[in-house]
Amino acid sequence: MKPPSSHHVTSLPHPTGRHRHDSSERWKSPVLPDRIQNLDQRDPELIDHIRNYWIIPPQPGRINLNPATYKKNKRYDFSEQGQVQAVLEMLDDRRDGFFVECGAADGQRNSNSLYLELFMNWTGLLIEPDPNFFAELLSKNRHAYSINTCLSPTSKPLVANFTTAGISGGISDLIPNGQRKRYNMDQRTPIKVQCFPLYSILEALRVSHVDYFSLDIEGAEVDVLETFPHANVTFDVISVEKRLIDDELGTAKKEKRIIDLLSPYGYKLIKRLKFDIMLQRRSFQ
């Protein structure tokens, strides 16, 4: 994949929220009032709270990439398995799209959205629960919305134990056993993280259509997809991590669950990557 000769990024309008990010200060997540913790994903009070206090709008100025990470990246498109190239093939090199990347890490390493932002004039939403990764993400000055939260595996917010382990970190109770053993996660002390339903976050942005949805959250993918109201939001292309580390049979079962779950909503398996599967909405094809 060769880069276009030039690009221009246009940010979406800023939300009406009262919280603003100062790049000179470390981000600190707001406190969610107890009464909101029990609200359903469609509740207007929950959605307004996320909009006003949690979502950081796209930042002005130049994107600030890490040169060392840039040089070490095996792919020009930044993605781990060539997801970006597959997306552009499936969407006929679409420009001006909107992405949602769940598990955005530091906003550069193995990013499934950065190339789209830099060279195809996309914007979107970056979701990352690890506070250290999120601080690095903010330092990149990405021209996309961002939020420091994990995705709730239920239809309500919750505070979860989150085991940090670089890009392999996730909600402690949902991390596959093989992954826990490989990275000695039982020896790590979890941190508490706030989780929101994906639907509530998208509603906070007033987004009902997404061109590319990347879901890689280390074990919670099926739970998130099961509780998401797919009739209310459409995705043209979805990539979902299918891999269960050290468990080939489990990986096959997980892949089938994802396909069976999304097929009734018009999604068809198009491509298998090393760790992900990619699906496309039939009505778009």
TrEMBL record:
SUPFAM superfamilies: S-adenosyl-L-methionine-dependent methyltransferases. One of its GO terms (biological process) is endoplasmic reticulum to Golgi vesicle-mediated transport. InterPro entries: EGF_Rcpt_Signaling_Reg, FkbM_mtfrase, SAM-dependent_MTases_sf. One of its GO terms (cellular component) is endoplasmic reticulum membrane. Residues 1-33 are annotated as: Disordered. This is Methyltransferase FkbM domain-containing protein. Residues 101-269 form the Methyltransferase FkbM domain. Pfam families: Methyltransf_21.
